[in-house]
Amino acid sequence: MAGQAVELHELARYRAEFPVFERQIYLNTCSLGALSLRSRAWVERFILEWQERGAAAWYDVWWSRLSELRERYAAVIGARREEVALHASVSTALAVVASALDYRHRPRVVTTALDFPTVVYQWLAKRNEGVEVEILESPDGITVPLEAFEKAVDDRTAVVATSQVYFTSGAVQDLRALAEIAHSKGAFLLVDAYQSVGQIPVDVRGEQVDFLLGGGLKWLLGGPGIAFLYVRSELLEELSPSVTGWFADRDQFRFEPRSLEFHRDARRFEQGTPSLASVHAQLGGLELLEEAGWDRVYRVTYELKEDLIACAREAGLEPKVASEPARRSSIIMIPSPDPGAAVRTLAEANIVVDARAGCVRISPFFYNYRDDYAGAIELLKRR
Ligand SMILES: Cc1ncc(COP(=O)(O)O)c(C=O)c1O
C-alpha cells in the first residue's frame, strides 16, 4: 500500500488537542479548521478578562494582542507586521483594497472561473463605475494556464486577482510567474490565500505579491470572524482607500471628525473594532501551529494528501487533481455521480467531508491519520 510511512506521523500527538475526533473523523479543514483546546482556552481567557476587567482590558491586554496577531500573521507569510491589516473577513478586506485602486486609466480586472466568488464580486459591483471584469475559463476544471493570463493582462489592467490554491480543485498556482505577468504590464497581483496559508508555505516577498488575503477559518485554525490583508510596504503610502473606518486613522483616539489622516502602515486598510473573541481563537490556533512547527505541518500535510491520492487511485476512484505533486494541495476532489449522497453516506459512518461541483472534497490536515481517509475511500469505492 502507498505511504505506510504516514500512518503514525511525527505530529500524531497533536490529535488529542482536537476534541472533534472523540466523536467524528474530521476531514473537512478546507471548509472549517477543527477547534483546538488551545483556541478554546484563549477564548475563555478573553471572556474572563471581559467579565473581570471590562473596558480596562482594552488597554491592559487586548490592544497589544491585536498587534501581536498582526505580527504572527506576518511571520507566516514572510512579511513584516507593518504590512498586515486585520479584518473580520476576506470580503471586507477586499472591499477596502478595491476602493483604493484607480480605475481611470486601468479599468480592467482579470480573474478566473475557479476563484472564490467573493473576489470577483468586489469588481462586478463596480461595473457601473466603468470597471471591466475578465473571467478566465479553466479548460480542465483544475487550473488556468499561465498563457491565458499572459493574453488577458494588458496596460489597461489594474489588478490580477486570483488564488494561490483554488478552492475548486486544490491546484496551487505559480505566484511568481503571475506576478511577472501582472507587473510586466504595470498591474498589481492580488492573491486570495485563504486555502493556502497554513497548509503550504507562503512567501509574499519571494513571490513578489502586492496584496494577499487569508484568515482563520480554515488552515490557520482560528475559526470565523478573523482575516488579514497583506499590502507590500512600497505600496502603502501611495494607496488611500475610500472604504474605511476609525482604525485606519493615524491617531484614532483624538476623535477628530474634521480630518482623516491614514496610518502610514497597513492599518490604513483597516476599518472598525475587530471581533476580539475571534482574535483570541486565532491566537490559540497559531500558538498550536507554531509549536507543532510550520515545516512539520507542511510536510505531514503534503505526505497525507499524496498518500490519499495514491489510495484513491488504487481504489479506482480517479481523483481530479493537478498532474504534478508540487502543484497539488490538501484539497482532494473525488468525482462522484451524486456527491451529496456520498457525503451523507460518509456522515452516517461519522466521517465528515464535503461536496463541490460533481465531487466529494476531502481535505486532510496534520491532525489526521492515514486510517481516517482510508475508511472514507473504502466507503466511496463501495458506492
Ligand atoms: C478561497 C476562499 N476565499 C474566501 C473565502 C471566504 O471569504 P470570507 O472571509 O469573506 O467569508 C473562502 C471560504 O469560505 C475561500 O475558500
Structure notes:
The protein is of the alpha/beta class and 383 residues long. It has two domains: 4-36 and 293-382, Alpha-Beta Complex (Aspartate Aminotransferase, domain 1); 43-288, Aspartate Aminotransferase, domain 2 (3-Layer(aba) Sandwich). 37% of the residues lie in helices and 13% in strands. The chain is built from eleven helices and twelve strands. It has helices at 37-53, 56-77, 90-100, 117-124, 146-152, 175-184, 204-207, 276-292, 294-314, 339-348, 370-382, and strands at residues 25-26, 84-87, 108-112, 132-136, 157-163, 188-192, 211-215, 227-231, 332-335, 351-352, 354-356, 359-362. The strands form three sheets. A seven-stranded mixed beta sheet has the order 2-8-7-6-5-3-4, sandwiched between helices. A hairpin with a 2-residue loop joins strand 11 (354-356) and strand 12 (359-362). It is globular. The two termini are 21 Å apart. The model has no long low-confidence stretch (mean pLDDT 96). It binds pyridoxal-5'-phosphate. Pyridoxal-5'-phosphate binds next to helix 3.
Short summary:
The strands form three sheets. The chain has a seven-stranded mixed beta sheet, sandwiched between helices. Strands 9-12-11 form a three-stranded antiparallel beta sheet, with helices on one face. It has a two-stranded parallel sheet with strand order 1-10. The mean pLDDT is 96. With 383 residues, it is an alpha/beta fold.
